[in-house]
């Protein structure tokens, strides 16, 4: 299989993962019994999407982009497998923070590499800036999480669409 074909399929995975994330973030979805399975499928799709995203920008994103990619993979992997505490700390907080840092660094690398429309990596940054406080401060309610999840999903769907179309030449 050609590398470009694999990258296109990674783009399709990013689109699927982004859409799943957006749909599962909508308030009526909270009552759906299969929701945890949906998050696993969405996170697995995002994992494959991350690989394609990094593959097309590896040279241009530098050490920051590489660090972001590796941290994002590690953080995302937690949400696919069994979840539990890490050294006595709630695992979601630990790996969610690792993922958030990785996503911001990956976004910075993406902005440097100029392989995607500028708005896609900015959506990842917005997702962290808006969504992460919602995870750590329950008093903020669910709105920050919802808005962060929407930005996250839209950013991945947009980057995935760019991969799928094969339009990842330096801009």
Structure description:
By secondary structure, the chain is mainly alpha-helical. Helices cover 77% and strands 0% of the residues. The mean pLDDT is 89.
Number of helical segments? 5
**What structural class do the secondary elements suggest?**
mainly alpha
Biggest beta-sheet profile: none
How does the overall form come out from the CA principal axes? globular
In what range is the share of β-strand residues?
Answer: under 5%
Number of strands: 0
The radius of gyration over CA amounts to 15 Å
Give the uncertain stretches in residue-range form: none
The percent range for helix content is: over 70%
* SSE series: HHHHH
What count of domains describes the coordinates? 1
Q: What's the average pLDDT?
A: 89
End-to-end Cα distance, whole Å, is 27 Å
Summarize the structure.
The protein contains five helices and no strands. The chain is about 75% helix and about 0% strand.
Set down the secondary structure blueprint.
Elements: H1 3-25, H2 35-78, H3 91-113, H4 119-136, H5 143-165
Helix pairs in contact: 1-2, 1-5, 2-3, 2-5, 3-4, 4-5
What labels would you give this structure?
171 residues, mainly alpha, 5 helices, 77% helix
């Amino acid at each position: 299989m050609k590398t470009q074909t694999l990258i296109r399929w990674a783009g399709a995975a990013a689109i699927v993962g982004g859409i799943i994330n957006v749909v599962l973030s909508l308030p009526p979805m909270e009552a759906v019994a299969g929701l945890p399975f949906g998050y696993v499928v969405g996170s697995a799709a995002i994992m494959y999407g991350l690989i394609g995203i990094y593959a097309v920008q590896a040279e241009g994103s530098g050490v920051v982009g590489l660090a972001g990619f590796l941290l994002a993979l590690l953080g995302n992997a937690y949400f696919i497998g069994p979840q539990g505490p890490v050294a006595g700390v709630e695992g979601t907080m630990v790996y969610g923070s690792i993922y958030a840092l990785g996503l911001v660094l990956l976004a910075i690398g993406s902005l440097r590499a100029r392989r995607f429309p500028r708005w896609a990596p900015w959506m990842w940054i917005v997702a962290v800036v808006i969504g992460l406080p919602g995870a750590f401060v329950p008093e903020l309610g669910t709105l920050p999480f919802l808005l962060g999840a929407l930005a996250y999903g839209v950013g991945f769907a947009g980057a995935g669409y760019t991969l799928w179309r094969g339009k990842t030449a330096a801009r």
